[in-house]
Design goal:
about 475 residues; 3 domains; Diaminopimelate Epimerase, Chain A, domain 1; Rossmann fold; 6-stranded parallel beta sheet; alpha/beta; inorganic pyrophosphatase (n-terminal core); 18 strands; 16 helices
Length: about 475
């Protein structure tokens, strides 16, 4: 039975066969070059003299396909034919002599790995003399490894966001689903919790985004699971803890071990949407208006209009998306009507603010929409001289808090974890974090006593104490907590 198939031949192809053949009889070569056919037969390789781009000359089965002609055009055609004939095979493609950028991109879209001797030699020389030649080698490998992982699934892909997803999580999930579909694998996007922020709801409704809840799906119906904008199943999502994961794409620093067949976690990126746009661009896939608009909005929200935790790739991704964006819809998404509850929480946060130096904390009492806390925390950050904000309130037996920071060396994720991580769960980014703490015995006040001052005294003291004495950053074993 043929396990490895060589399509076309060249010095590179000959070297690959010589290294991998080792006297086995599971290799078949297809080439219309009589000279190479004779050479391969002399080496004991079964060879068919035929056009390597003609799938009719291929065997019924092949686990590994090596495309190795010197002609880039023929390599693209052969790799495409092999991908159609063997959807789950591992395809390794030689770029050929002097390939164009478009030919490289076409090969990357169908092959699991590409071989470029010139780039490899350049990288080796640069490494030897201590010169940085630009893009890291792993950057070239990410896309084919992602595509290969998706292609090898034995069913559709389920893309899961973190609970109560924000625009970046929603957009990233939709973008990854689009990538899966370009490889011939269907995909669904699901989330846990609720989409409560009015901008988030506006984005989903106005763009008519196809989302499902975790309760609406059956995990056994899917051949693989992907996590976006978070990295551990069962922690900050509604999957069972320990659920097997195939793909993880995230820009948050992990708070524990991350496992998956394909893992791409880049904390230097400002948004997961930036990573997804990079994949789409390298695949040569033009996102439809809904996906492009969502991705751009996700980048803008997570970087706060490119003012926090942004990187050059964030700007590049945004520039690439702009021509495909529905600007009129984006404007409506960014300017939804503000709910009465949000206005009330914001007014209360301003009225009850406790300012100490460049930090402000505010207890807004009982809340009807906990997403309003994040909006209030963002707005308070616009106050003159303020670099750290924390707004908190309670509902359904739980205290919720949202923190923001700008222009400071304080990591508010670590501050909240130190202040409230013990009695509850807390964490997030250096500039954006959230906390949840069960009320517990605090709730046992008399009916005629207002609970708000009790919550305020309990939380405020812990927050300012942790702010004055920031804790040591969490270890890799610490739990990953929701940001807010």
């Amino acid at each position: 039975m043929i396990r490895r198939l060589l399509l076309g031949c060249s010095a590179v192809g000959s070297a690959l066969v010589e290294r991998g053949h080792e006297g086995t009889d599971d290799v078949l070569a297809v080439t219309d070059d009589t000279g190479w056919a004779s050479t391969l037969r002399d080496r004991g390789v079964a060879t068919v003299e035929a056009d390597p781009t003609d799938a009719g000359a291929y065997p019924d089965h092949a686990a590994v396909v090596v495309v190795a002609d010197d002609d880039p055009t023929r390599n693209v055609a052969a790799a495409s034919a092999a991908r159609e004939r063997y959807p789950t095979a591992m395809i390794v493609a030689h770029v050929g002599t002097a390939p164009t950028a478009d030919q490289r991109q076409q090969l990357r879209s169908v092959a699991d790995r590409i071989v470029d001797p010139v780039e490899a030699m350049t990288a080796r020389v640069c490494h030897a003399v201590g010169v940085d030649d630009g893009e890291a080698p792993e950057d070239d490998e990410r896309l084919p490894r992602l595509v290969g992982t998706i292609r090898r699934l034995d069913g559709p892909l389920l893309v899961v966001t973190h609970d109560n997803p924000d625009p970046d999580a929603i957009a990233s999930a939709l973008g990854l689903a689009r990538i899966a579909e370009t490889t011939g694998v269907s995909a669904d996007v699901c989330y846990g919790g609720e989409i409560s922020h009015q901008e988030n709801r506006a984005m989903v409704n106005l763009l008519d985004l196809p989302l499902r809840t975790v309760e609406e799906v059956t995990l056994d119906d899917y051949g693989g699971i992907a996590l976006v904008d978070h990295s551990r199943a069962g922690i900050n999502d509604s999957l069972p803890e320990g659920t097997s994961v195939d793909i993880v794409i995230d820009h948050h620093p992990p708070r524990g071990p991350v496992t998956g067949t394909f893992v791409d976690v880049r904390p230097d990126a400002g948004a997961t949407s930036t990573l997804i746009e990079e994949y789409l661009s390298r695949l040569g896939v033009e996102p439809d208006r809904a996906v492009a608009t969502a991705l751009l909005y996700g980048i803008r929200i997570d970087t706060r209009e490119f003012t926090r935790e942004m990187s050059i790739p964030d700007f590049e991704a945004a520039a690439s998306l702009l021509p495909h964006v529905d600007e009129a819809t984006l404007e409506r998404v960014e300017s939804p009507s503000m709910s009465q509850e949000t206005l009330r929480v914001l007014a209360t946060a301003i009225d009850r603010r406790d300012v100490r130096g460049s930090a402000v904390a505010s207890c807004v009492g009982e809340i009807g929409d906990r997403d309003a806390l994040a909006q209030a925390a963002d707005r308070l950050l616009d106050m003159d001289g303020i670099s750290v904000t924390f707004v908190y309130g309670y509902t359904d037996g739980v205290i919720y808090g949202s923190a923001r920071a700008r222009g400071t060396d304080r990591d508010v994720g670590e501050v909240l974890r130190g202040a409230l991580g013990g009695p509850g769960s807390a964490g997030g980014h250096a500039n954006m974090a959230g906390a949840q703490v069960p009320l517990g015995i605090l709730e046992a006040v008399s009916d005629d006593e207002d609970l708000t001052p009790v919550v305020e005294e309990y939380v405020r003291g812990r927050f300012f104490a942790a702010l004055a004495d920031p804790p040591t950053p969490a270890t890799a074993e610490a739990g990953e907590e929701p940001s807010g």
